[in-house]
Amino acid sequence: MTKQLGMHDSPSSRRPLRWPQPLAGSSERIWYGGDYSPEQWPEDVWDEDVALMKQAGVNLVSVAIFSWAKIQTTEDTWDFDWLDRIVNKLGEAGIAVDLASATASPPLWLTQKHPEVLWRDERGDICWPGGRQHWRPTSPIFREYALALCRKMAEHFRSNPYVVAWHVGNEYGCHNRFDYSDDAMHAFQEWCKFRYDNIQAVNEAWGTSFWSQQMSDFSEIIPPRFIGEGNFMNPGKLLDFKRFSSDALKEFFIAERDALASITPNRPLTTNFMVSATGFALNYDDWGSEVDFVANDHYYLPGEAHLDELAYSASLVDGIARRRPWFLMEHSTGAVNWRPVNYANESGQLISDSLAHLAFGSNAICYFQWRQSRSGAEKFHTAMLPHAGRDTQIFRDVCELGKDLQLLSESGLTDTILHKSEVAVVFDYESEWASEHTATPTQRVRHWSEPLDWFRALLDNAVTADMVPIAADWESYRTVVLPCVYLLDERNTQRVHDYVEAGGKLVVTYYTGISDANDRVWLGGYPASISDVVGVSSEEFVPLGADHEGTLEHLDLSNGTVAQDLAERIARTADSTQILATYQAPEWTGMNEVPAITVHPYGSGKAAYVGCRLGRRGIAKSLPALFEAMDLDLGQLGAGAPRIAEGDAAKVLRVERINQETGQCFDFVFNRSHESATVPIDGKLLLLSRAAAANESAHAENDVNAASRSNAVPRSNTVSRANDMSLIQQSVTQDAVAQLAVPRSKVPQSVVLQPNGVAVSTVN
Do 13 and 285 form a contact (C-beta atoms < 8 A)? Predict the structure, then answer.
C-alpha cells in the first residue's frame, strides 16, 4: 500500500503507456464500440450483432464483464466454449476484444458456500447477493477465487490474437467502496501500521485526545462503524478510512492485474474509472499510476451544464492520464436507468458528446452497451442498438459517428494530444473527502463544486482551462486556481510558495489550506499555511443561509456580485495587498467594507484571494478585473478567444489537439448553449455536425435552420453540392471533406453552430 499519499509525483512513478494495438492487418484508428453481453442473447442473434457492428464502424467491444457465473458454472466446472465462439466470431470480422477478468460479481454458488466474502455496512448488516459488487476486497477467500478465475482466463486466452487488452474488474467501488467487516478492520489496522509505524503517531494524526479516543495498540483501531444518529466521527480517522478504502480496492485490482500479466505479459491492462464532477469514490489520480492506459466511464449531467461538466470531467481524465491518450470505456447513447428521472438525449447530443471526449484527449469512444438489454435492472438503459432496432435515430447517429471517427483517424488525430492550456484548475480527491465531514462550518460547501464553477466561469470568458490533479505538475502553468483545496500538506504548501515566488499567477479561494494532510487545522488565521503568499488572514467563517428568520442569507459585493453559502471574515491584509472588492452589508453583520477579493504580490508573482462563494456567474463577472490586476490578459489565455464575436464567445467551447512532432493541430469547436453561435474557423474543415458554413448569401441562415431540422438525413444526402458549403447539414462525407479541405485562403471565415453543433478543422 502507498505510505505517503498526495505527493507530487513524477513520470517515473507511473506505469509506461501501453495502448491496445490493432488486429493483424488493420491500421491504427480510434477505438469505437462498447460493452457487449452475448450471453444475454440466443446465438442466432450474434451474427446479426456482428453485421450491424460492421455497419456502424465498430472495431472493439468489451466482453465477459459480468460473466463469472457463465464461465465457472460450479466450483469445479468451467465453460469457455461459448466465449471462444463469440471472441473468434468478432475477431474474424475485424472486431477486437477488450476481455474482462469477469470478477466484477461472484456467482451465487460462491457466496452460498462462503457468505463471509459479502461486505457489511456501518451497522454490520450484510450486503446480500441480488445486485452486483457484493464482495469485500479484503476477504482472503474471495481473493483466492477471483485470482483463480484470472489465471484461468489468462491461460485460456493467452494465445488468442483477437484479445487486445484486459478489462480488469469493473467500476471498482461503485457499490462496495466501504466495508466495515472484521476483514476490513484487520486490513485497516495493518494499513495504519504501515502508514504511521507506531500507535502514538496515529493518536497525533487523528487528535485522539479529543473525546478520550486515545489508543495504546493497533488492535484498538476499528472502522468508522455506526456511532448513533447525530454523533460525529473522528475526522482524521474517517479521512484515513476513505484513503484505506481506495487503497484496499486498488490492492485488489493490482492482484488481479498481476495475475493476468504473469501469464500474458505483453497484453495491456486497465480498469474503468468513474471520473465526473460528482465522481470521487476513489482517488483516481492515485489509481492512474497503476494502469497501462487510463480508462473512464462518464455519464452526462442532464440540463444546461451537461457539456461543461463533460468537458470538465474529460479534462480531469486527461490530467490523470498525464496528457497521454486515454480510453472512454463507457458513456450513453441516451437515457440511463439509474436516475430518478432518466432524461433522453437532446438532438445531436450523441455525436457532440462523443466528439467532446475525443477533443480532450480520448483515443477511444465506447458505450454501455452495444445491444439494449431485454431484461434485468439495466433494460431501460439506452444502447447503440436500442429496443426499437436499427431503423432508429440512435442507430443512424451511431453509424454517422463511426464514419466521423474513421475520417478523424485517417486525418491523423490519434497522433495528437490535448493542447496545453495557459490556465490550470486544481482538483484534490482528499480535500473532497475531508470536506464531506458532517461537522463543518456549513454542509452546503464541499470541495468538488468550486473547481467546476471556476472551469465554467473561465469558459464564460472564452478560456478553456486544464483540470489538473493536485499531485500533477500544475507549476508549469502560467496561471493556477486552487478552489476550496481544503487540505494543504507541507509539500503542497511549499509548492504554492515556490510557484508564486518564481513568477506564477495564483488564484486561491475561501476554504483552501484550512488543514494539513490529517485534517488538523493550520493555526494563525485562514489560510494560515499560505497567508503570507495571499497577503490576507481570515479569523472566522461567516456561513450564509435562510434556515432561521433574520439570518444573513447573502452578501453583496462592491463589484456587483453576490456571495452565497460561505464567506470569510478577512481581518488582516498586508500593506501591499490590493483590495478589488469589499462586502456591502448592514453594520450589524460585521461584514461591511470587509475585503472580499484581493491581489497580493509575492516574490516575482502574484496571488489573488477570493474570500467567498460567488458561484459560476459571480466568478465569471469578477474574472476580467481580477486577471487584469494580476497582469493577465483573458483574451490571450483563451484558445481562439479573440477571433470569436463578443456576443458568441461565451457560447463556445474551443479545444485543440496537437501533434508535438509535426505541429498539426485539430481545432474542435462546440456550441455550449441552446442558441446558434457563429465561430471563425481556421485551416481545413473536416467535420460539421448540426452546423453549416456561413457565407454572404442570404439563404445561408435558412440552410442552417434546415440542417437543424434534418438530423436524420442519410449521410449520402448530407451535402447536396460539395462546392456550396452553406448546404452542409448533419456531417460531411469523406468525399465531401476531400473537396472541403482546400487551402486556408479558400476556407469559409466562419461556421454557424446550432445547439449541440460541432465543427472540427485541422491546421498543418
Answer: no
C-alpha span between 89 and 86 (Å, rounded): 5
> Three-class SS string for 250-277?
HHHHHHHHHHHHCCCCCCCEECEECCEC
Cβ 227 vs Cβ 209: under 8 Å: no
Catalytic, out of 256, 309, 330, 400: 330
Bridge partners, 167 (sequence order)? 100, 270
CA-closest candidate to residue 244, choices 198, 294, 286: 286
Biggest CA pair distance of the chain: 83
Query: Residue 474 — φ and ψ, nearest 5°?
Result: -80, -10
Distance, in Å, from the CA atom of 673 to the CA atom of 753, rounded to the nearest integer, reads: 10
Is 346 annotated in the active site? Answer: no
Q: Residue 229 catalytic?
A: no
Question: How far apart are the C-alpha atoms of 507 and 439, rounded to whole Å?
Answer: 27
Whole-model pTM: value is 0.93
From the list 51, 115, 102, the residue with the least C-alpha distance to 73 is: 102
CA distances from 583 to 123, 178, 560, 594, 624 (A): 46, 43, 10, 6, 19
- The dihedral built from the CA positions of residue 80, 83, 85 and 87, taken in this order, carries a sign that is negative
Residue written as cell 463469440?
86
Strand, coil or helix: 330: strand
One-letter amino acid at 685 equals L
Where does the pLDDT of residue 635 fall: very low under 50, low under 70, confident under 90, or very high at 90 and above? confident
* Contact status, residue 96 vs residue 59, Cβ threshold 8 Å: yes
CB atoms within 10 A of CB 633: 13
Cis, peptide link before residue 42, omega less than 30° from 0: no
pLDDT digits (tens, 9 = 90+) for 646-693: 558 889 999 999 999 999 999 999 999 999 999 998 889 999 999 998
- Under 8 Å CB-to-CB from 9, ≥6 apart: which residues? 289, 471, 472
**Nearest one of 250, 254, 247 to 147, comparing CA atoms:** 254
Q: Give the side-chain half-sphere CA count within 13 A for 713.
A: 21
Count Cβ atoms below 10 Å from residue 171 Cβ, excluding itself: 19
